[in-house]
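User: Fold this, then the next.

Assistant: Folding the first:
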Amino acid sequence: MLNVTDIETAHVSAAVLATRLERAQAAAAAAGLDAVLVSPGPDLRYLTGYQALPLERLTLLVLPAAGEPVLIAPRLEVPAALASPVGSLGLPVRPWDETDDPYALVADLAGSATSVAVDARMWAEKALRIMAALPSAQVRSAGPALGRLRAIKDAAEIAALQRAGAAIDAVHAQVPELLRPGRTERAVGRDIADLITAAGHVTVDFVIVASGPNGASPHHEVSDRVLQPNEPIVVDIGGTMPDGYCSDSTRVYALGDVGAEYREYYETLYEAQAVGVAAGRVGAACADVDAATRRVMVDGGIGDYFIHRTGHGIGLETHEDPYIVETNRTPMEVGMAYSVEPGFYVEGRFGARIEDIVVLTEDGPMSVNHAPRELVVVDA
C-alpha cells in the first residue's frame, strides 16, 4: 500500500533491488521468455543499481526467467561493478579478459534458451552479435516487460522524483531575473543550465528557451534570437539528479504585455492542464487523461493548435512508460509517474506549454512541481 507518508520517507535498499530482479524474472516468464539480457543503461540501473559505463566492451546482465542472474563484465570494470549495489546484492559477476569472446560467455550462460529479450536501449552492434551467438533463439525487445515494471514507481523512486521536482522548481523561480530585452535565447539558456546544476542536478538534459514565434516549435531549444518586449517565452527545462531520476517542467513567461488573444489562449491552456492533472485516477486508461485535457482545448477553440500527446512517463529516463496519448488504453495504477503538458502552437506567431510531473497515489494525483502555472509577467 503506497501513501504520501511512504513516499516521503522511503529509500532504496538492496532488498528493493532484489525484489525488482525477482519481478523482472516473473515478467520474463509471463512473457514466455527464457532470459532477458540487459546492457548498460536505465534498465540495468533500475534492476541492479549499477550505472555501468556504455563501452564497446560488453557488460551484460543475464537474467534467466528461472535461475540465478549473472552480470558479465570486462575484468577492468569488475571493481566498479562490485563497488556499486551489485556487491551488496551478492550478484555473481563473471569477468572476461581482453582476448576472450564475451558473446560466447553469453551463449554459455543462456544455455538452451529459445526465446530471449534484449533491453530497448541496447546498441544495435551488441544486439546483432547476441543474435549471432544464439542462432537458435528468437531475440526480441524486453521493452514491454521491463517498461511495465519501471512504469510503477516504488516509494524510493517517488521520493527521488519529488526531490527532482523541487530542484527544477527552484530553477524556474530564478528565470524571471534572466529575461530582459536584448538578451539572446542562447545566453539565457546558458544561465539556466548553470542554475540546473547549482540546484543539485548532475547533468543538464535539455534547455528550451523559445521566444516569440520560436515558441510555436515544441522542441525549439535555443537560438541567437534576441528577446523582444511584449512577447511570450516558453521555458522547458530538465536534468538528472545524482540518484539517476529526472526532472522536467515547462513554464511560460511574458516580457510585458502579450496581448488579449494570447492571454485568452493561455487561460484555456491553464484550465486544460489543471483538468488533465485531476483526470488521473486508478483504473482509468492513460488515454482518458489525454481526452480530458484535449476536450478543454477543443472547447476553448484551440484544439487544432495542440499537436502532441498530453504526456509521458518519467523516472530514470525523461521519456518512458506510460505515455499519455489517445491510443494508450493501459490502465493507470498507483505509482505511475507522468507529465501533463498540453500546449498550443501557432506557426509564425507564438506558443505555450504548461508541464507538471504527476504521481498517482492512493489519494489521487499528486504533482511534484509547484512553481506558479500562471503566465509570469516580467517587466520589459
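Now the next one, as you asked:
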Amino acid sequence: MENKLNNFIQNNSPDGGFLQSEYWRKFQEAAGKKTYNLSETGESGELVVRANIITHTLPIVGDYFYIPRGPVIAQSAKLKAQSHSVKLKNFLDELAKLAKDNNAGWIRIEPVDEKSLEIFRNSFKINGNKFKISKAPVDIQPGETLVMDTSRSEEEILAGMKQKTRYNIRLAEKRGVEVSVNSDQKSVINRFLELIKITAERDKIKSHPENYYRKMFETVPPEILKLYVAEFEGKIIAANLVLFFGKTATYMHGASDNVHRDVMAPYLLQWQAILDAKKAGCERYDLGGVKTHNIERITHNKNSWLGVTRFKAGFSPGIKPIQFPGCYDIVLNSWKYNLYRILRKIKKVI
C-alpha cells in the first residue's frame, strides 16, 4: 500500500512530490502540526486524488488548512476530467467538511500546474460554486524549481554545466575539500545548525528554528534524508540537506561558513549529491527554488534570488524551470479570511 501511494504521488508530481509523502506529514506532526489525509479512488480502486493536509495557526484568525504541492490529481483524471468530476466533487466536499469541522477559516491549496487549478475551479462550480477560490496573498513554496536530468552519463552532465561551475567543482577538489554523508552524529548535526544560523545572518534571511531540523532528522529515515558535509582543514565549512524519494533527489537546505569561501565547497557538495542520485537510480535532481522572471532586474541588495538562481543554473543552464501556479485559498469563512488579509497587510503574517 505504501509503495502504491508513493508511486501515485511521484508519477503525478512534477517535482517528485515529497511534500505530499507520508514522511513529510509525519515530520510535520513531530514538529507540532496537526495533520490529516484525504483521498478518493476510482471504480477499480485506483487513486484519483490525494492530499496530505497541514493545519497552520495564526494569531487572532485561528487555523487554516495548507496542502503543500497538492492536492495531487491522477494524470488520467486530468485527461478525463468530466468522467472524474463526481470523484473530484466528493473529494472537495469531504475536504471542505473536514476543514469546517475543525474550524479552519480557509483551505490553501497549491496546484502543481494550471490544469489542476482549472479542475479545482470547475469542480467547485459543479458543486454549486459555494466557496470562493482566491489567489493567496503569499506563495509558500517557490514558484519555480530547477530540475536537472540525472539519467545522462556523468560526462554528459559535466559537459552541460557552465564552464565556471565545472571549474569551481575541480577547484574544491584540488584545494582538498572532502565531502561525506553524515546525518547520525550529534556533533555534525549541531555544526549544521550553527552553519544555518551563520548563513541566515549573512544573507539576511529567516531560517527555521533548530527544533524544526532536529525533528526532521528524528522522523525522516536516513536513507531518505541525507546530510552532506564539506570539510576543509579538519573543519566542516558547508553542508546540504538532500532528500531521496523515488526517482527524484531534492536539494532542501544549504548552509556555509563565512570563512574559506574561496575553496568553493558548495559546488562540490552539489556535485557529490548529483553523483549519488545517479547511483541511487534517480532520474531527476531538483536543485530547488529559483527565480528567472525579470532576474536581471533583481539586485543583491534587494533580493537574494539573483545569486541563488545563478548558482543553481550553473549546473544545468539549458533547462527551463518548472513553473507552478502558486497558492490559492478556498474561502470557507469570509469574515476570518478578510480579517486575515487586513492583518497580513499590517503585520505580514502568513
